Model the fold of this input.
Amino acid sequence: MCIGTGKPYSSFLAQQTAQRPFRIRKVVLYLPTELLYDRINRRVDAMIADGLEAEARQLYPYRHLTTLQTVGYQELVEHFERKHNRATAVELIKRNTRRYAKRQLTWFRHQSEGWEWIHADESNIAHFIEQLSTH
Done:
């Protein structure tokens, strides 16, 4: 029994899918690998320049929390624990971010049915949005 409705769970499985007054469009914005990786590298450099290391130092006492087991914090925590130097930590953040981006794209490729792939430059995005408004 579902507490909120008082109905058995199985009663929901047999229901017909609701008709919606809109069409869902699934869109993947992509960049060529070389450009994507360059942007990732520059973004990591900017984050370091903007104080990511200081932020990670403040959060170091909480390093065991799941929310800090992420790219960026993990590599800096290892640096603070003297497992590698700062330059290596920054390179590892870049590498691990590139790997994460690659896994995301692989996931999207496997979900390809019904997804529209749009090159993520501003003119393509603007054109896509303009087409949406004319339909």
